[in-house]
Structures are given as C-alpha cells and as structure tokens.
Fold this sequence. Notes:
Oligomer: heterodimer
Structural class of chain A: mainly alpha
Order of helices and strands of chain B: HHHHHHHHHHHH
Structural class of chain B: mainly alpha
Number of helices of chain A: 10
Largest interface: A-B, 41 and 38 residues
Shape of chain A: elongated
Strand content of chain B: under 5%
Radius of gyration of chain A: 19 Å
Helix content of chain A: over 70%
Number of strands of chain B: 0
Helix content of chain B: over 70%
Distance between the termini of chain A: 39 Å
Number of helices of chain B: 12
Order of helices and strands of chain A: HHHHHHHHHH
Largest sheet of chain B: none
Mean pLDDT of chain A: 87
Mean pLDDT of chain B: 87
Low-confidence stretches of chain A: 1-9, 221-225
Amino acid sequence: MRALPGKASRQPPGRPPVSRDAAAADQRRRILDATADLVAEKGYQATTIEMIVRRAKVGYATFYKSFADKEAAFLTLVEEAIDGLDGRVRQAYDREREWPDKVAAGLGALFEEVAAHPNVAHACLVEAITAGPEAAALQESAMSRFAPLLKPGRELNPHRAQLPDTLEDTLMGGVIWVVNQRLIAGEAERLRALLPETLEFVLRPYVGEEVAAREAGTVTSAGAG
Amino acid sequence: MPEEEVLGPLPAGRHGFSREQVEHSQRERLIAGLAAAVAEHGYNAVTIAHVTKQARVSRRVFYENFDGKEGCFLAAFDVVVGHVRELAAEAVADEPDWAHRAVAAARAALGFFASEPDLARLCLVESTGAGPAVAARFREAARELVPLLELGRAERRAERPLPDSTEDSIVGALLLLASRKVATGEAERLGELLPDVTEFVLAPYLGAAEASRLAREAA
Lengths: 225, 219
C-alpha cells in the first residue's frame, strides 16, 4: 500500500502496514486526513461522509467502525491535533531555560506545526468554531492549555499585581487571530516570517517593550540562519 | 434604543407607509427575523422558512429582497456593524484625545453588544462560521479598527516603531476576548471587559503605567 502524501510527512518511512491492527490504524489515519483536507477545502458543513470515504479510499463500513458520524470523526481529528500540537509546543518550551526563550520556542513550534499542516490547523482553528458546541469547546480547552505557559512571565513584571486576569487568554486570542488570518489567506507558510513580531506582542506585557524586542531579534537572526 | 425600531413589527392593517417604505420595512423585518432565527437555531441550521416565519412575510418577499440565507445574513451583519460604528462615532465626539476616544468607542461597542446578546452572537460568533463571504465581511469590519488604532502610534514616546502587525494582533485579541464571552453565554457581561480592554489596547502606545491608569479611570 502506497503511503499517502499527508501521512508520509508525519511518520517515518517503514514497512507498509501488514497486520490487521496496523491496517486499521492506517485506514483510521486516512479518514482523519481526508476529513481535515475536505473541511479545509469545503468547510465543515459542506463536507459529507460520502466525500470522506471517497477521499480516504475506504468503505462506509470502515468509516462507521471507527466513527459514529461526521462530527465524531471531526472531533477526533481536532482532539488529536490539539494533543499533538500541545506535545510539540511543550517539548520546545521545556527545552529552554529562561521563560522568554521558552515562549519563543513554544510559539515557534506552534507556527511551524501550522505551516507544516495547514489543513489540519484550518480544521481546528477556523472550522471548529462552526462545527457545533463540542468542537468549539475543544478549541476552548486548547486555549486554556497554552495560557498557563505564559503565566510564569508575570513573575518578571514588577507591576504583576496590576496585570489583568484575562491577559493570557487575550494574548492567545491575538496569536490565534494572526494564525487564522494567514490560514484563511492560504499563506500558512508566511507565519514563519511573522514569528518575531508575534513573539514581541506576546512578551511585551510581561517584560516590557525593550526586552520583548530584543528577544524577538534573536528569533529573527535564528530564522535567517 | 434605535435597534428596537429596526426590530419592531410593522403596524398591522392600513398604514400610511408608501410602497417603498413598506418594502424597506419588509427588508428590515427579514433582517430582524434572521437575527432571531440565528439566535434560536444557529446560522447553519437556519432555513428560509425560519426567517420568513419570524419576520411574518412570505417566501416570495424574502426572495425579492435577498438571494438566499447568506445574503440576508450579510445584510444583518452590515446593519449591526453600521449601528455600532454610529454609536462609537457619537461616543468619541467629545473626547479630548486619542486614548479617551479609544476607550469611549470600546465602551460604546461593548455596551451595545451587552444590551443585544442575540446581535452580539450574530456578529461575533455566528459570523465566523457562516461561510467564506461572511467571514470575509467579518474580517473587513475588524480591519476597520486597524487605522484607528494606528493613530495611537503618534502618541508613542519611544523612537523605535512598533512592529507592523501590532494592530492586527490587538484586534484579534479583542475579538477573541469578546467573542468568547458571547459564546459562553455571558454577552450581558461584556461591559466588564472594558478595563482590561483599555489597558491591553493602550499599553503599546502609551506605556504600561499610563495604560493601567486609564484602565482604572475607565472602570
């Protein structure tokens, strides 16, 4: 069985799936990839199970073995994507020692992941809001996972008592808006160039403009190298 | 409240309206009907029948005014945005400087949406899921804020210019903050966001200390 393009980038090349479990996992993956691509192309509402099974090259029975309906497949897609993103962001964040470097690395990982998988990101960020309350709640939960990574920055601010409670959510909102704008414009790859500015935006309320700009300068030079 | 004039029913029976006025009213009724139907069912589940039933006009009249659900939604969106724009313009008229104008405009917009939760939902939540044409109109409306925020750059003391995307990020942050409040059913409490919004918007331009002073003033 030939590896699908979307799959090849996510998994190291290896033996084609032979066991029944591996074949089932492969089919499930293809269903989720097809769902992401179709939702990004046509929107959640316009996507049908028929389109998904055709694109994924699986039968209806296979689809229904894994998912009760379109929403279930979509929710699984969003949930797994958020888990994956969360893992990558946290890994990058944890590798650094200083908090501004941690945020730079985490934000860099977020932008990198979105640029590498724009359809999945589009499904999770742009379409999830339209796909009913459960999907919107998942997206909400993703925001609340990332916000705590920003909170330690409060310790760096001498006026921390005055920082509003909503600061982290607000900053995440700004970041997600910037990402969404690029996704909608079909320019996810441009996010890499926007990393320094977005980093400065996120750091500024905690460390002030000067330090934020300096930190942003370090990711610029790293990105250019 | 001017919005209630828009949303109110036409007087029954013989009235003094010209044909053109009635047609204008039918259009407004359809727009109001759509807003009510969207609040009840969500945009994607709304049918033309829901709208015409709410508006108490015929299907034929609907199609005389709009080519479909999306066209009607766009019209509704434009009416609401236009109204908020007017309220904000009135609110800033007597303010002494850019910072106070920004606060006054935010207060007016948050106050309006808090008093009209259904319209807040239509504009801030449903519009993001109502298809590409609506999403584009939403972004267009959001981008109107960018040049208004950019005026704040003249207030900066620091020599270094702000990054180009600063206003974009601020707009996104504000929209997400407001839309979350609406999405979680707390539209009535939008006004509570004003101090945080004030501080967040003003800090890049005026510095943290002055922004937080004005935020306390706004509370």
